[in-house]
């Protein structure tokens, strides 16, 4: 896996389809955590806990498990309703076990025609556990993709690693399996090519800066502060997008953004963004497919 360092001033202007200035993706992460692991080591559950004191993996952590499960039982439905009323699509990621264990959530997403991106097998089984065992990583990815196709009814086209913890071989394995985009890297506001022995794969950047965990749990922002931040990010990228198109991703988690006292930030931001022309409510697959055809006009090889 290799990607070139090409600073923004060295690129040609990026011209999105239909003259769009900003590709906007609001990502709902649909994640499943095992209650216990067969280990006495602390269980890192693929996301910050609300109660930070770690327990051994083989001891049920009902406090953190049920805090996260709130998103599956309640929060995600509030978020889906918010998107429905705004009349815009969400982009979603899906653990394989979410598709197996929480099928009604996935069915609701499929009924709406929203994008689903493969997001590891189980949220706490990070790919970095397999940095030195390529075959084991390839097996985990393969099993995830098998469940994805079984649940969604078509092959996955892209991937986001749990906690963005991929390895130096993840992009190569994904390309071998026919995927065309990877979301793990946070080093840009435009897509770019990652080169692998099996051909190029497109980086469609995710963000932990523009992310509800960062707003509400890492920085302790209020709902109003988070809304202001989203608008500031949007306004600046929209301004710059007049010259060269930008991509804005908002990372959301149903057990964080789906609470009643936070949902206003999502609702009012959707209403705000809908008021602008030239916003592409894009899927990552559409961005990646377009970029594979048009990358040479942006960053010549």
Fourth CATH level, the homologous superfamily? Glycoside hydrolase/deacetylase
Relative helix content? 25-40%
Number of distinct helices = 9
Binned strand content: 5-15%
Q: N- to C-terminal separation?
A: 16 Å
Assembly type of the chains comes to: single chain
CATH level 1 name: Alpha Beta
Q: What features would you describe in this structure?
A:
This protein has 301 residues and is an alpha/beta fold. It has one domain (23-297): TIM Barrel (Alpha-Beta Barrel). 38% of the residues lie in helices and 12% in strands. It has helices at residues 62-86, 96-101, 103-111, 134-152, 170-176, 212-218, 223-240, 263-274, 284-294; strands at 22-30, 91-94, 115-118, 158-159, 181-182, 192-194, 201-203, 246-252, 279-281. The strands form 2 sheets. Strands 1, 2, 3, 8 and 9 form a 5-stranded parallel sheet that branches. The chain has a 4-stranded mixed sheet with strand order 4-5-7-6. Strand 6 and strand 7 (201-203) form a beta hairpin. The longest helix is centred in the N-terminal third of the chain and has 25 residues, at 62-86. The mean pLDDT is 97.
């Amino acid at each position: 896996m290799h990607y070139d360092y090409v600073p923004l001033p060295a690129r040609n202007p990026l011209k999105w389809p239909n003259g769009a200035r900003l590709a906007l993706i609001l990502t709902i992460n649909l994640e499943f955590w095992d209650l216990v692991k067969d280990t006495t080591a602390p269980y890192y559950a693929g996301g910050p806990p609300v109660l930070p004191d770690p327990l051994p993996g083989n001891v049920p952590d009902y406090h953190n498990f049920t805090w996260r499960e709130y998103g599956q039982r309640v929060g995600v439905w509030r978020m889906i309703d918010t998107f429905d009323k705004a009349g815009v699509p969400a982009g979603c990621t899906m653990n394989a076990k979410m598709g197996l264990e929480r099928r009604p959530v996935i069915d609701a997403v499929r009924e709406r025609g929203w994008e689903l991106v493969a997001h590891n097998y189980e949220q706490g089984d990070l790919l970095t556990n397999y940095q030195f065992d390529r075959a084991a990583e390839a097996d985990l990815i393969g099993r995830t993709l098998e469940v994805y196709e079984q649940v969604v009814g078509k092959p996955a086209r892209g991937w986001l690693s749990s906690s963005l913890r991929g390895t130096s071989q993840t992009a190569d394995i994904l390309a071998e399996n026919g995927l065309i985009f990877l979301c793990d890297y946070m080093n840009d506001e435009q897509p770019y090519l990652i080169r692998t022995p099996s051909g190029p794969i497109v980086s469609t950047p995710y963000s932990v800066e523009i992310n509800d965990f960062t707003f509400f749990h890492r920085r302790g922002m209020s709902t109003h502060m988070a809304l202001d931040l989203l608008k500031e990010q949007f306004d600046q990228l929209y301004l710059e997008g007049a010259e060269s198109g930008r991509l804005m991703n908002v990372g959301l988690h149903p057990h964080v953004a789906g609470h009643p006292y936070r949902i206003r930030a999502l609702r009012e931001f959707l209403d705000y963004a809908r008021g602008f022309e030239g916003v592409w409510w894009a899927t990552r697959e559409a961005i990646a497919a377009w970029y594979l055809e048009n990358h040479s006009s942006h960053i010549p090889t």
